[in-house]
Amino acid sequence: MNETRLVTRRMADHPADSHTIERYEATGGYSQARRSLQMGRERLVELVKESGLLGRGGAAFPAGMKWSFLAPARPAYLVVNADESEPGTYKDRQLLERDPHQLVEGIIIAAVANEVHHAFVYVRGEYARPARRLQRAVEEAYGRGYLGKDIFGSDYDLEVVVHLGAGAYICGEETALLNSLEGHRGEPRLKPPYFPAATGLYGKPTIVNNVETISNLPHILELGADGFRKLGHPEDTGTFLFSVSGHVRKPGNYELPHGITWRELIFEVAGGLREGRTLKCWIPGGASAPWFVPADHLDLEITKDATGRAGSMLGSGAVVVMDDTTCVVRAAQRIVRFFAHESCGQCTPCREGTSWLEMILGRIEEGAGREVDVDVLLDVADNISVGLAWPPRMTTICPLGPSAVSPVSSITRYFKDEIMAHIHQAGCPLR
Questions:
Q1: At the topology level of CATH, where does 328-424 sit?
Q2: Which terminus of the chain is less hemmed in, N or C, by CB atoms within 10 Å?
């Protein structure tokens, strides 16, 4: 199965210099940014609505609709979320590192569409090289008059700031990101009243979009809404970047249309499993997502709605594949440990509950588990995410705590026998 390249086309065709402004302009770059200045807010917002572009950061909220919610008060701000910290995600890193001018052009289009004159890119602190590449691209755009005063010879001003975070996963949540950007602790804000489109950065209306979302904008203007829609599935338009990792022969980023099946993605696109191994399970949308198993989900269509109806989410496209050598208890513990470590501590269910989940899973994995521990796990999980439903019923300000429940609910649902084997054999049966 061939990839459908859009946001990765330039880096595939010109791998040596796709990040340079010379290559970007030689391949049509910045032409759509110029055009956007002639279109204005209403036409741009309507175009993005008609394109069906969904946010690529995890929530999959329609981008054009989000823009239409922007409160009329000015000044307003645009913030690009490049704090890619979810285990298994690395698509935004590739876009930042290998085609940063595509993002800069997308920022210009989004800024014009939302009547914004100050934009910020919040980059994960560990992304040193991508941040340098992006900063260089911003400087080059300033040098050619594409950013700053009177961009492209118009009367429109746009300032762009590249800001590095400090390594906190929680800052991937948009209101925590805004707190961090303002110089405060990276802690989520209550919604309401702090819906960014109404009360965001510095208390002003703010649009927060993901790197991949913004990178699609030049292509939507180039192709038109209908052309963009035709690239994808009727429900999920355009292309989608899947970051496939784990026990596959060809891990990596793949740009594909929605609507293919998980079987096609894992066994055709990513090359299948290692020699002699069988598929045990996979995480369809990053560490926050409930797991899938072959018997129930291998031939499921990959769309937002189909995945949601099956009890999980596509998230930011991070697919983690596990074969039959995987200890699911150990895998779940590692994920829960991450969430426990990254909890900001603001909400009691998350602060206390994630540590309890990690401790109980660790006890089972180390061979000291008790039969009652399965019930205790579920009880603690239920106190973090009531009913263990998906999408989770929130007991916390942000989804971090309920997300930590996903691996627990997954292994108790699909692999209870393996958990009990750990308990009865005083250790992992796969060792």
A1: de novo design (two linked rop proteins) (1.20.1440)
A2: C
Domain 239-323 sits in CATH at 3.10.20.600
Q: Residues of CATH 1.20.1440.230 domain(s) within the chain? A: 328-424
Q: In tens digits, what is the pLDDT along the chain, a chain of 431 residues?
A: 789 999 999 999 999 999 999 999 999 999 999 999 999 899 999 999 999 999 999 888 999 999 999 999 999 999 999 999 999 999 999 999 999 999 999 999 999 999 999 999 999 999 999 999 999 999 999 999 999 999 999 999 999 999 999 889 999 999 999 999 999 999 999 998 999 999 999 999 999 999 999 999 999 999 999 999 999 888 899 999 999 999 999 999 999 999 999 999 999 999 999 999 999 999 999 999 999 999 999 999 999 999 999 999 999 899 999 999 999 999 999 999 999 999 999 999 999 999 999 999 999 999 999 999 999 999 999 999 999 989 898 899 999 999 999 999 999 999 999 999 999 999 998 87
**Looking up tokens 């045990």, which residue turns up?**
280
Which CATH number does the domain 9-230 belong to among 3.40.50.11540, 3.40.50.2000, 3.30.1330.60, 3.30.43.10?
3.40.50.11540
SS3 225: helix
3-class DSSP state of 400: helix
Q: What is the value of pTM for the model shown?
A: 0.96
| b (16+ CB within 10 A) / e for 94-120 | bbbbbbbbbbbbbbbbbbbbbbbbbbb
Residue range(s) in the chain whose domain bears CATH number 3.10.20.600: 239-323
Secondary structure element (H or E) that encloses residue 82, with its range: strand 77-82
